[in-house]
Each structure stands twice: as structure tokens, then as C-alpha cells.
Design brief:
Elements (H helix, E strand, L loop, with lengths): L4 E5 L9 H9 L2 E7 L11 H19 L6 E4 L2 H12 L3 E5 L4 H14 L4 E5 L21 H10 L48 H13 L4 H4 L12 H5 L5 H9 L6 H19 L23 H12 L5 H13 L4 H14 L4 H11 L5 H12 L14 H7 L3 H7 L31 H13 L5
Helix pairs in contact: 3-4, 5-10, 10-15, 12-13, 12-17, 13-15, 14-15
Bound molecules: flavin-adenine dinucleotide.
């Protein structure tokens, strides 16, 4: 009887180009496990939109495994404890997994190794990034802090290795451990079911591959269209990549295969790698401003009900700034927002409303289907000007000009029905043009006033 190996799935819910699966399957029988672990990440447990995605992605993964006469074992609780327990009971000598870099996963890996002792092993593989985070370094071996030199060094190492094929066969163990039922986990919303608009997504490996196919057809127009929220110019792969339903190496090779200039897209994919490198160096990046000077920043007091009301208006898309409101409503309806609009909405919260970036980060964490510790923190800190590589705080985006510049009229008309009858240019700023519908709020604060307040707040902190 060959001892089984455990395959520990986390954010790598795929069978192809899955180095942990390939290694486990080549050694003998495999026990694939997913653990819903709300203990290990503590306050960083998965948000509600991510749970919706996870539910469907796990269903799809189980179906793919069953097509290969295997199955997905589901357990809930502390990952290290559960894995060590199953390994001991079923005699598994090895647990295979892909590297994960969130601080809680690294802690869990250490805890698991301790529990496994000397006669069992956790074997970690690469494959969720273009290059293993931490491996792209300067000539003196230091990690990069700034994106542009990071990208230049990463590009030297591209293309990534060719994707590995799905193993032909995944042998079943003699005995399966007990499994929870997916429905028992209550991952889907009810009362109310706010996920009606999430049907634009097809979670799972097949859905991810189909999304890559769709994008490849217009990848050469990415550069020209990626900043226009009114057209579908980006790949919409972020939740698929976050949950590891497709590997970035596969995406890189498919997109590069179109044979024309796709560097801009490759550079965006590299931001995902850069963000992981940032949290590897600064594990608290999601909760602490990198720049010390922001420790004293006079964010408005979040305990005040007036500030809470403004935050609420931002979350619900009722700020009176159509582009911001369209973005926040798209987020609520579909769990995703166009990158340009994410930047505008985030900047509005931090600079126009002077609300601590961490409040916005938390809202995105709960509502994005692609909520990713590294990418979310890196981008919020970039927008806020608090990060290691970031936009300067004093560069304050003007939402209304951004809206016109990036031709967001159709986008606003789609997501803010109160403004659906307004043509360009009125739709970008109806109040300014004297056509504010009674059902749509006036601006929560004027742009000039907000800008000045933000600049004054910044001028008051040390080192500004
Ligand atoms: C405030 C803010 C918060 C964000 N939070 C997240 C988050 O939690 N998760 C997340 O995946 N992205 C986040 N982003 C980055 C970016 O907005 C999304 O990755 C992008 O909109 C996803 O759409 P797409 O797949 O069509 O991207 P495309 O433009 O098609 O890009 C391809 C892929 O590259 C990666 N990518 C592109 N831009 C970035 C970027 N700036 N940072 C990191 N990776 C990038 C994504 O994996 C994306 O799927 C955030 C951006 C901002 C401004």
C-alpha cells in the first residue's frame, strides 16, 4: 500500500500548471483538501464577496477532480491542526502546496511544520506568480522597493516557465478522510441575496480559461482601451488569478502568443508580482502606512457620525460625484470595479473625504471578488501616497475631469440610473450644468474645498 500525499489547496484552485498537484500525483495516491480557515487569518478572514466566489470555485474544482476519479475533501478550522491530524491518521508523509505569501499563511506553514515533526514534510512549490516572490533582487541581492526597477529586472527573467499539463491520472487513496458538505459552509448570501449581479462571472478553472480566450482576441487593443471604463478593454482576470484558477504563466504565454505588442498588459500582470514582493518585505502593509510621517496624519475621526455618514455615502454610491458613485455601485452589484475607477474612488475617499485609507481598504476587502491582501494594500497605499512606491499625496485627482478625460459617460449612465437620461458632457457633473435630477444627491463636498482641506492637512504633518 503506497502512502498517500496530501494536496493542500488555498488560492490555487486549478488542476493545470499546478506544481503541487503534479508533484503529489507523480508520487502516488493523492488526498486533495481545501480548508475553510477563519482562525488563521484572524481579522483577515475572507470577505463576503470572496466567499461567494470561493463557493462556486470549489464546486468547479471538485467536479474537475471527480472527472479524474478523485474528489475534494472539505474541512473547516485551523489549517495546521487539521492537516497534521489527517496526515497522521492516514499515514501521509508529504503535504504538497503552492507557496503563499500572506503573513498568516506563512505563519500557518511554520505551525504546520512544527506539528508534522521530523517524519512528515510540507513541500512548497512555485507557480502563483510570474517569478517566485523574493527571487527578483538587485545586483546586491536586495529586494526591490520601487515598481519600475522591479519590472525591468523581472522582464529579464521572462518568459516564465511553460505551463505544466494537468496530470493524466490522480490516484485515489485506499481510504478517504471525512469531508464537510459545501452547502454546510453558508458561503452564499441569503437574506438578502445581494449577489444577483454576480452572474457576470463564471468562477472556476473552465471559466478562467474562457476569460483568457475572450481577452486574447482583443489583447492587442489593451493599451488603447484599458483606461476607458465604458468599454470592456481589460481582461477581467483578477478574481481568477487571485483564486489561482489560472496561472499567471499561462496568461503570459497565451497573451504573448498573439505575436504583437502586449508589453503594457505584461507590465500590469507584473504589478501583481510586485505587490507580493511588497508584502513579503512589509507583512503589515495592509494595516500600516509605510511612510512614518503618516502616523500623525489628521484623518477625520471615524467615530464621528458625520464622518460615518460620508463613508456610508461613499460605500453606497451617493457622493454626488457620478464617476465615484458609478464605481461604488458597480462594486456593490458585481464585486469588481474598473482599475481607473478604483483609483478615482479610492483617491476621493482618502483626499476629498480625508478618511483613513484603511477604512476603504477594509470595504474593498469585503466587497471585491478579487480582494487580495497584497494587491489591495499596495494599491490603496499607492493612491493614498503612504506607500513605499506611491503617488504623492499632494497630487489630488479631480474626479470630474478624470470622468471626461476617460470618456466615462456610458459607464455612468449604466451604473447610476438617475443620470441615465443625461448626455455628455452633463452626465459628468450635472450640478455644474444645472440639470441635477431630484433623485440624485448634490456633491458631498466641493472639489476645490476638499482639495484645499487635504493640502492643509498634509502641510501640517512632519516631513511634508
Ligand atoms: C484602490 C485599489 C484597490 C485594488 N485592489 C485590488 C485587489 O484587491 N485585488 C486585485 O487583484 N487588484 C486590485 N487592484 C488592482 C486593479 O484594479 C485590478 O487588478 C484590476 O482592475 C483587475 O481588472 P483586470 O483583471 O481586468 O485587469 P487587467 O488590466 O486586465 O490586468 C491583468 C491582471 O494584472 C493584475 N493587475 C493589473 N493591475 C494591477 C495593479 N494595479 N495591482 C496589482 N495587480 C494588477 C491583475 O491580476 C489583473 O487581473 C486595486 C486597485 C486599486 C486602485
Amino acid at each position: 500500500m503506497t502512502a498517500p500525499a496530501i494536496l493542500w489547496f488555498r488560492r490555487d484552485l486549478r488542476l493545470s500548471d499546478q506544481a503541487a498537484l503534479s508533484a503529489a500525483a507523480s508520487a502516488g495516491p493523492v488526498i486533495p483538501i481545501y480548508i475553510l480557515d477563519d482562525e488563521t487569518p484572524k481579522h483577515r478572514k475572507m470577505g463576503a464577496a470572496s466567499r461567494w466566489w470561493l463557493r462556486h470555485s470549489l464546486e468547479s474544482l471538485d467536479a474537475s477532480l471527480r472527472a479524474k476519479r478523485s474528489r475534494l475533501i472539505l474541512r473547516r478550522g485551523n489549517s495546521a491542526t487539521i492537516l497534521a491530524d489527517i496526515a497522521r491518521k492516514l499515514g501521509a508523509k508529504e503535504i504538497h502546496a503552492l507557496h503563499h505569501y500572506e503573513p498568516w499563511w506563512r505563519n500557518a506553514e511554520t505551525a504546520l511544520r512544527e506539528k508534522l515533526g521530523d517524519d512528515r514534510e510540507l513541500v512548497l512549490h512555485d507557480g502563483n506568480y510570474l517569478a517566485p516572490p523574493g527571487s527578483v533582487t538587485t545586483g546586491s541581492g536586495d529586494p526591490y522597493k520601487i515598481y519600475t526597477p522591479f519590472w525591468k529586472a523581472l522582464r529579464e527573467r521572462m518568459p516564465p516557465p511553460e505551463p505544466q499539463r494537468t496530470p493524466q491520472q490522480i490516484d485515489a487513496p485506499d481510504q478517504w478522510p471525512a469531508s464537510d458538505g459545501l452547502d454546510d459552509w453558508d458561503l452564499l448570501p441569503n437574506n438578502p441575496d445581494w449577489a444577483g449581479g454576480f452572474d457576470v462571472w463564471t468562477p472556476g478553472e473552465e471559466g478562467a480559461r474562457a476569460a483568457v480566450d475572450d481577452f486574447v482576441d482583443h489583447a492587442t487593443r489593451y493599451d488603447e482601451r484599458r483606461n476607458l471604463p465604458s468599454v470592456e478593454g481589460t481582461s477581467r482576470l483578477s478574481p481568477h488569478l487571485h483564486f489561482g484558477e489560472v496561472s499567471p504563466a499561462y496568461v503570459w504565454h497565451r497573451v504573448s502568443g498573439v505575436g504583437r505588442e502586449v508589453t503594457t498588459y505584461q507590465k500590469e500582470l507584473a504589478w501583481r508580482d510586485y505587490a507580493q514582493n511588497a508584502i513579503l518585505q512589509f507583512p503589515k502593509y495592509g494595516s500600516e502606512s509605510y511612510r512614518d510621517q503618516f502616523a500623525d496624519f489628521p484623518w477625520r475621526d471615524f467615530r464621528s457620525s458625520a464622518v460615518r455618514d460620508e463613508f456610508d455615502a461613499w460605500c453606497r454610491g451617493r457622493t454626488g460625484y457620478p464617476i465615484v458613485d458609478a464605481g461604488m455601485r458597480e462594486l456593490w452589484a458585481t464585486g469588481w470595479v474598473h482599475n481607473r475607477v478604483r483609483m478615482i474612488a479610492a483617491s476621493f475617499l482618502v483626499k476629498h473625504l480625508l478618511i483613513d485609507w484603511r477604512e476603504g481598504e477594509r470595504w474593498f476587502w469585503d466587497t471585491l471578488v478579487d480582494a487580495d491582501y497584497a494587491s489591495n494594500a499596495t494599491n490603496w497605499q499607492w493612491v493614498a501616497g503612504t506607500g513605499v512606491d506611491s503617488n504623492m499625496f499632494v497630487r489630488i485627482m479631480a474626479p470630474l475631469s478624470q470622468s471626461e478625460k476617460f470618456d466615462a459617460g456610458d459607464y455612468i449612465r449604466q451604473w447610476v440610473p438617475e443620470l441615465a437620461d443625461l448626455d455628455d458632457p452633463y452626465v459628468h457633473d450635472p450640478g455644474q450644468h444645472g440639470c441635477l435630477p431630484a433623485t440624485y444627491p448634490a456633491k458631498i463636498i466641493g472639489h476645490r474645498e476638499a482639495r484645499q482641506r487635504a493640502l492643509d492637512a498634509y502641510a501640517g504633518i512632519k516631513g511634508s
